[in-house]
Write a structure and sequence with these properties.
This protein is α+β, with helices and mostly antiparallel strands. Helices cover about 20% and strands about 45% of the residues.
């Protein structure tokens, strides 16, 4: 028995010794360079690419299966050079391969150049076809070997990697699109890693110099990766993707975060964000011209952060944070179906001043509005300088349900306190609800947009304003400086069309308003009335200090809007000693106003004791007309001479009637007295 065991042991030792000797001697006696033609033919048969190995081929068998190549070139379609390789080398341990374990020394790749060209017909030089292989018939009586089934593949144990490091340097990729006449170059590229082992973290770093039309960038991708091949899980920590313009003191845009990927069932989750950077500087460095802004420091700080997860069918971001200068926004976002594109979101933010990002105000700014024909046909195209205002195609496909709340919002000098917006959109219809505190009062507004009919979107809006202070509102609207009081108003309007002028011409609806405890600060209607009375009496006013305001206890009215013209015939105001009535129109298309106001004296004399405007009973309840007219930005107000003439005629007629009555009343009275005696 002992002799048998010794024999087996000696036999095994001899086999191992012979294997080692063979592995050591084979590379000496077999030169792989003799097989260049066979290698290039094999590559051509499998891919259609023509490979030329111009440098030496080195190889080893034991204990490492190694291969090295130098000076390799590849031709693509039409004999264009597709690739050039300086050198490549890889060594894998032989014995671990038997148990599907890959133990590899440093994988090196140097001087790889890829030259990709797409011709004017849209075909790339990499698009080649392998020659059709000859069909091989199986011997008689022998069935072809069945293809491996997915079950057999999944039951096999996965590979286990153990790579000392990867080192790729001198990588150059150029892409020439002759169809669009655009060229892209990635050069000075390199990839380095630490030891790559299953379930053990390793560092990686990829650098590249990128040239695209009108832009040159330096890029960097780095992080720490851990993977589990058996479980199909991959984890990247401290990920950093940076792009920096290749200029002096280039502004870097960096995406940072952590990402986890699970293969089965698919799940991607993690946190990704954009590190703070100066957006204005970056845009300037990549030659994107920004318009001048009111705040010279606008767009100087921008950052973003998110926590997300997706299974390929849905997407959820339970944390979204945006920081733009001093404005911050927090919220969440969800898509139940990525294919369907439905979105739900909720955001809250602090103070946002949009005026900082608008062009600075200038005194010489002039309006560029042009006169448009008064045609209410919503499909008629106006001047070529106008552009469609509503992106119908985008809005038609929206599926939204979201809300946003801010501490304050400043737009065109208007300050909205605690504004909130609720948006719903589906099947081509959108509804937006807006609420806000506004200059000591409140605003509630609902707008609807219907883009189901192409080229003719329809809009409707309703709003309610409560207790808005005109005095406070006059700060952003200086034209209101002549009015004080609290405004309560309601509005229901609708229009249709794609252009600003068409929308204005098609505007219809009504507006109701009421101003309590009001004051006309720039108009003294008492003076206007006295001037009218004095003119009738042909007297000169003695008083000079009339003041510049008129108080009224109530002001209300209704404007009916038809095709862009707002008309009113029921303006009523109760002044201290007079009533004010008004009628007229505001043409929003031509930006013209023509409004008449009538002052009616309730007492026997005007408020002031100026003798020139002392009136008797015949002037009580007579309406004294005032007119405001002209461009909306340049109104002129004063006595309405035309209506004043009618008033004077009415007074003269009443005076004549009274004289006749007095002449008749005397004899009649005497007759009646005698009769009753």
């Amino acid at each position: 028995m002992n002799r048998i065991l010794k024999f087996i042991a000696v036999l095994l030792a001899a086999v191992v010794l012979l294997g080692v000797i063979a592995a050591a001697l084979l590379p000496r006696f077999i030169d792989p360079n003799q097989y260049r033609d066979e290698i290039t033919q094999l590559v051509y048969d499998q891919s259609g690419l023509k490979v030329s190995i111009n440098g030496p081929i080195g190889w080893s068998i034991f204990p490492w299966v190694g291969l090295s190549l130098e000076d390799v070139s590849v031709e693509g379609a039409n004999s264009f050079q597709l690739a050039q390789l300086g050198s490549a080398g890889v060594s894998v341990k032989l014995i671990p391969l038997l148990s599907k374990r890959i133990e590899m020394q440093t994988l090196e790749l140097k001087g790889l150049e890829l030259t990709l060209v797409k011709n004017t017909k849209g075909k790339g030089n990499w698009q080649v076809s392998a020659p059709k292989p000859l069909e091989k018939q199986a011997p008689r009586g022998q069935e072809p070997s069945p293809a491996p089934t997915p079950e057999s593949e999944t039951t096999s144990s996965p590979l286990k990697l153990d790579i000392a490091s990867v080192n790729v340097s001198g990588l150059l990729i150029s892409y020439d699109d002759q169809e669009s006449k655009q060229k892209y170059i990635i050069d000075q590229a390199s990839l380095t890693t630490g030891a790559i082992r299953n379930q053990q973290p390793f560092d990686f770093e990829l650098k590249a110099h990128i040239t695209i039309p009108d832009l040159v960038l330096n890029s960097l991708i780095s992080g720490e990766m851990t993977f589990n091949l058996e479980a199909g899980r991959y984890d990247i920590q401290n990920l950093k993707v940076t792009a920096t313009p290749d200029v002096d003191k280039g502004e870097s845009l960096s995406i940072v975060g952590n990402v986890q990927y699970q293969q089965t069932p698919m799940l991607v989750k993690g946190n990704l964000g954009v590190a703070e950077f100066n957006l204005a500087n970056l845009l300037n460095q990549i030659k994107v011209q920004l318009p001048p802004m009111a705040d010279p420091k606008a767009l100087s700080k921008l950052s973003f952060d998110s926590h997300f997860s997706t299974d390929g069918e849905s997407l959820a971001a339970d944390k979204l944070q945006l920081q733009l200068d001093s404005f911050s926004l927090d919220g969440n976002f969800r898509m139940n179906s990525i294919d369907r594109g439905d979105m739900q979101f909720s955001f809250t933010g602090n103070d946002l001043n949009l005026d900082n990002y608008l062009p600075p105000a200038t005194e010489d700014a002039e309006a560029s509005d042009e006169e448009q024909p008064a045609d209410s046909d919503s499909k008629q195209l106006p001047s070529g300088k106008e552009h469609p205002l509503i992106p119908e195609e985008m809005l038609r496909g929206l599926d939204l349900d979201g809300s946003m709340k801010l501490a304050s919002l400043t737009v065109a000098k208007f300050i909205f306190e605690q504004p909130s917006v609720d948006i719903k959109a589906a099947q081509g219809k959108q509804e937006v609800k807006i609420g806000s505190r506004f200059y000591q009062g409140t605003i509630d507004m609902t707008s609807n947009l219907d883009v189901r009919q192409s080229g003719n979107p329809k809009m409707a809006a309703s709003a309610e304003l409560k207790n808005i202070s005109l005095e406070a509102l006059s700060k952003p609207i200086p034209d209101l400086a002549s009015l004080q009081g609290d405004v309560n108003a309601g509005m229901k309007v609708h229009t249709q069309g794609q252009y600003a002028s068409v929308l204005t011409r098609n505007l219809n609806g009504n507006i109701e308003f009421k101003i309590d405890k009001g004051v006309f600060t720039d108009a003294n209607f008492d003076k206007m009335v006295c001037e009218g009375v004095a003119k009738v009496r042909k007297k000169e006013l003695r008083a000079t200090d009339w003041g510049s305001s008129t108080e009224f206890t109530d002001l209300s009215g209704t404007f009916v809007i038809k095709n862009g013209v707002a008309s009113n015939d029921n303006l009523i105001a109760a002044l201290a000693y007079m009533n004010l009535k008004g009628d007229g129109y505001v043409n929003l298309v031509d930006r013209q106003l023509d409004y008449h106001m009538g002052l009616n004296i309730r007492g026997e004399e005007a408020p002031d004791s100026d003798p020139a405007c002392q009136i008797n009973k015949e002037y009580v309840n007579v309406t004294w007309p005032v007119r405001c007219h002209g461009d909306l930005g340049d109104l002129k107000c004063g006595i309405d001479v035309k209506r004043l003439t009618e008033t004077i005629a009415e007074i003269a007629e009443n005076r004549l009637k009274k004289k006749i009555e007095d002449k008749v009343q005397g004899p009649v009275k005497d007759l009646l007295k005698g009769f009753f005696k």
